[in-house]
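During the no-cost extension, the postdoctoral fellow (Dr. R.K.) reprocessed legacy sequence entries with the updated structure-token encoder. One reprocessed record is reproduced below for audit purposes.
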Amino acid sequence: TGVQTCALPISFPSDYVITKSGGPPTLNVHTVPTPLPGSPTWNNIHPAASLFGTVTVLSGQSAIINSEACPSAAQGGLAFVFGYADWETQESSVGWTEYVNELNGAGLRGVYLNYNC
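Re-encoded structure tokens follow.
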């Protein structure tokens, strides 16, 4: 039918460095309306009310957080915001470095968008 699919995978191989304090954090993923403000911050973007997906950040995992039909050019693009799940009550932090092997996207690590799957 010509409908394209956009998927949001996450890939953290076992040797991937994830900086964190506290236990493995569970993150909620929300879509964010586009276009984004010139300097997006947590305080000036407005996540969608519905949850796009949830992921617990662990080394050695690969998963697809969720997928949906890609928006048309008139609808804008896709943007996401990650935040701690509501049930996370301890102080913690998490971070990772996005990595893309320039050879045809092989070796993707971190969070990335697949389209026209």
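The two ends are 13 Å apart (CA to CA). The chain has a mean pLDDT of 79. The remaining legacy entries will be reprocessed before the final report is submitted.
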